[in-house]
Specification:
Strand content: 5-15%
Distance between the termini: 27 Å
Number of strands: 3
Helix content: 40-55%
Strand order of the largest sheet: 1-3-2
Number of helices: 9
Number of domains: 2
Length: 186
Amino acid sequence: MQSIHKASKPREGATARYVIIDGDPTGSRPLGGHWCHGADRIAAWALRTSLDRKLAAGCPPESARLVAVRAREIVQLASRGRLADYWERVLRIAGSGKEPALAVPLSRARVRTVEPDIRELARLLRARLPVSARGVAMARLLLTDGGGPLYRGDPQACLRDQLHAAIAWLDPELPLVADAAFVTGP
C-alpha cells in the first residue's frame, strides 16, 4: 500500500491542495507530496531558475516544498508542450536566413549540427507519459542559459552532450521516484 508524506498542513482558513510529485505503481515506495499554497506557486515562479538548477542537479522534488511545487509545474503536459515549442522555434531560427532580435544570439551552426537531438528532445517533452522533473529542468535551463552552448557563450560546452543528458532523463523507462542510482544519473 502506498503512503503519503505530508510536509506541512495549511494554516487555518488557507486554501491548499495536495500536490503529488511522484509515485511507484508497485506500491513499494511512498509517494512524495507537499501542501501547495497560492503563495508557494508565486514563490516557485519567482525562484524558477534557482529551483530548475536544483532539479537539474538531481535534488529530489520531495526535498522541499518550493522544489516540489516547481517540479509539479514543469512536468505538466501543457508546460512541457510550451517548452517543446520553444525548442522547435530554436530550430526555425537556426535554419532561417534572418537574424532575429534575440537578447543573446543563437549559435546557429551548433544548433544545426544537433537538429535530430533537438527534435528528439521536443518529441519526449510532448509525450503523454510521465517524465522526470530533472529532465525537464535540464531542457529548460539549456534553453534559457544565455551563456550556455546553445548561444554564442561558452565555446567549450558541448551542446550535444547536454542535450543527450536531458534526453536520457526524459526517457519514459527511467523510474520517476528518486533513489541513489536515480540521483547520480541514468
